[in-house]
Amino acid sequence: MKKIVTFGEVLLRLTTPGNLRFSQSRDYVATFGGSETNVAVSLANFGIPTEFVTRLPDNDIARACISDLRSHGLRTDGIIYGGDRMGIYFLENGASFRNSKVVYDRSGSSFSTLRPGMIDWETIFADAGWFHWSGVAAALSQDGADTCLEALQMADRMGLTISCDLNYRKNLWKYGRTAADVMKPLVQYSDVIFGAEPEYKEILGIAPVGFKAVNTDYRLNLEGFEEVGKQVAKLVPCCRKMFLELRNSLSANHNLLAAVLYSDGSLKHTGIYDITHEVDRVGTGDAFVGGLIYGLLTYPDDDQKALDFALAASCLKNTFYGDFNLATVAEVEALMNGDSSGRVQR
């Protein structure tokens, strides 16, 4: 199997212990994460050859990060070095009716000062079959967006499947251009698009249908989601598959998840998962993306099974601390087949 390449910024994550507020905490738990990194770890954990491409400073923190990535089976040969620092994000986990909070500290990071021409995309893509990127990589600077374009043009020229997670983060778009203005031309290279409803609205101007489930009896507005798929197909003619992960948050620790897929003029959908005791919801969307790429490669003739696998993977991510989804294929398949007892396995 040809490898998958993901591209983006890996961050040092500093989390307050338990559910302490920033103002209370004197200690922080250090881990690594970031959207495209999380997707790469999921895929490597599922046994798919995966290479993560980024830019890091040449220092001990970066080396610790690379060691961590390699421990999950990721290939890191495409990582280049330069700049002065890694990006950081601080996380305060919410509880019940108090929301979680994220504070970014990534201005001037090695990745945010990446420029076109620094990465040898032709060499990296020589043995690759799939390229995945997200809107975060284009949000930090114009040079970052131009580097995304450079990678997309090479991936397209070399015949790779290209997937994009729209991944809109309003606090990152600060260099004078809107997300829609930058992302619309870049998304045109996509064979596969992922996103949440607000992201499709922000990037492509498509109004949300809505997902207000309070239990698993909720009925999806399938006609509405089919219309969203038709609009995406019209706006992005290259797109063969459009995915939406749907979430309704009843509290910081209680969420309901579902997903839909539009492809070849028809809509597929999952059931609804009711997640009542979340450990860590950060990275659940990335787990969905990683699960879908795995599913599309593993079940090429069964989009429904791929969609069900992806949502089960995303649900299981809620049970792991940190950005990375550490679920195995067997665990995901057990959940998608109805084994959700939570019993001790002896």
UniProtKB/TrEMBL annotation:
Domain Carbohydrate kinase PfkB: 1-207, 261-317
Family: Belongs to the carbohydrate kinase PfkB family.
Domain of life: Bacteria
Full protein name: Carbohydrate kinase PfkB domain-containing protein
Species in which this protein is naturally found: Bacteroides nordii CL02T12C05
MF annotations from Gene Ontology: kinase activity
The keyword Nucleus appears for this protein: no
Keyword Repressor attached: no
Keywords: Kinase, Transferase
